[in-house]
Amino acid sequence: MLGGTLFIVLAFMIYEGVVLTSGCISGVGQLPVVHDVGIGGTSGKSCDDILDNLDKRFNEMRAARRNETAKMNLGNVPPQLWWDMFEPEATCFTDERFGSNVRKGRYGAFGDGPKFLCGIDSIAKKTARFTDEGAGERCLVYSIGSNNDISFERAVYDHISGCEIHTFDPTLNTAFVGDKYATFHDWGVGEDGQSMSFGEKTWTAKGLETIMQELGHTDRTIDIIKIDCEGCEYTTLPPFFDAIASGKVRIGQLQIEMHAPAANLGSTQDADLPMVHDFFAAADRAKLRIFHKERNHWGCYGYNCVEYAFASEEFLREANEALLCPSGYLPLPSVDMKLESGSQDQARSTTTSFEAVTPVEATNLFIEEGRPLFDEDLIPKNTVVDMNIGTNYDPLITMEGRHRILVDPLFYVCDSNAKLTTDVTAFCFAVSNQTTHFSTFLEYNDAGVSSSLSKVSSGTSHAGFQVKSKKTVLVLEANVLFSAIDNRNTTIHRLKMDMQGWELSSLRNFFGLLKRPRFVAHIMAECFCERNGKQIYDVDNSCEKIDQLLKEADYETKGGCESGEWSDVIGYKKGMGLEFFNGSWAWEGRRPD
């Protein structure tokens, strides 16, 4: 019997490092049980705690170096000891030597030439999302200084497939040999307008900001900058670092060979220790962390040239998080669950012990124990329902006494939905085109407004949103959810989708069911309007594409982009004697007490 009964799916989520487990509600409210989650041997620490502690340690090491160099008489330090003052102060847990001059596989980078890179898999994942889903940005790589050695460009091409690579070198005497891998520019990088020379070659330099403008890259992140320009770093990079510090430019990481003193090397720039010191001070202002250092003992008298690897604070944290946190190793402790059924007097408890497992393994174990991540039996049978995915505190209002299925990934929102006084099934997960797994949900504002599985796009109205918190939530594939509804011989009268970027991909995911004549009668899907080549989140959720997809599924549609950055597409299924709803997509407007 459905009358007056409230349902909430059995689910658990990791809420800033704590596991919350919940069960059925029957008008008595939620009874969460909270457990600390230990990661990497740090019991009771959330992922953000661990990353915050790492950042604190990295900052302390940077401060110690700055304090020490401030005490020194920089004019009295011999060149052999210059680089001893600037040591790595951060750890990238996924750094690797990258870019062999012969193809020996990803980990075959030996000898002179390769660079230490951080988070290659994170960059590859970004590019794969752009290629497969049209989401976010394509990876962008600058390689400055070539001498027709294309080993680095070829390694990026081989192992981070899909990156846009640009190589710069004004000194080549023969044609560039890496056209298969990179776009070549015979530009010298330096201070804008500066006259420079190397051997018999002369040129007028361009600053990196100027180059980005000419190539149309001012709104993009340069994921990797590899630079070996024989001393130009002292004029090229400090102003570029200042542009990074001001927020005008974004980079992921920088690999650079530093040179000193130029008189011994015949390079383009005389350098002394105060200039080197100022270089690292500018890198500090740009919030770049040194994560690797390697002396070039193949030349430069064994001490005059040193390879440094820097990563932006933001990317370093992202790369470390990818290894330590969301879809990797997450130990789960014993979980005590209290399930309410009928009344508090009929409470029953179950304890399940999990070893340290990945989220995927945890999901499998959860199902093997007979408690699936969502329970089809909570969906009413042989009836018609209204459904709202992405409710926040404003779930779709009930009409004509129909049961509602309300879906939201935020625990406190789901709990609020479950306490509604009318027939409702409250599911606690996000919905997308992805298979069941745990993912990071970005909470941008109070009460989850405009929060999403996706990051906001720069240069849009949402760009100023600050991440209030990150929550690890269960993500359910749309087709799994809608197939479960179909299996219960239930259809949907109104489907409201407010998923902050995942409407289009989810509609595609259950398109086979959507095409069915009577499965979903009315639909309202939020969509994004492209402005200056961007949508408000880094996932494609085009109004035009949603409108076209619904028409292909035999819907009559209206709405879409007129002004602003987002809108809705509304549709009804043809052949059912229906017309557009007017005003009946209203929501309850509930807020927490």
Which percent band covers the strand fraction? 25-35%
Mean pLDDT: 75
Rg, rounded, reads 28 Å
Tally of DSSP helical segments: 13
Question: What's the β-strand tally?
Answer: 29
Structural class: alpha/beta
State the helicity in percent bands: 10-25%
Short overview:
This protein has about 600 residues and is an alpha/beta fold. A hairpin with a 6-residue loop joins strand 28 (about 555-560) and strand 29 (about 565-575).
Notes on the structure:
Helix 5 runs parallel beside helix 6. Strand 17 and strand 18 form a beta hairpin. The N terminus is likely disordered. The relative contact order is 0.11. 24% of the residues lie in helices and 27% in strands. It is of the alpha/beta class. It is built from 13 helices and 29 strands. It has an eight-stranded mixed beta sheet, sandwiched between helices. It has a seven-stranded mixed beta sheet with strand order 9-8-7-12-13-15-14, sandwiched between helices. Strands 2-3-4 form a three-stranded antiparallel beta sheet, with no helix packed on it. The protein is elongated.
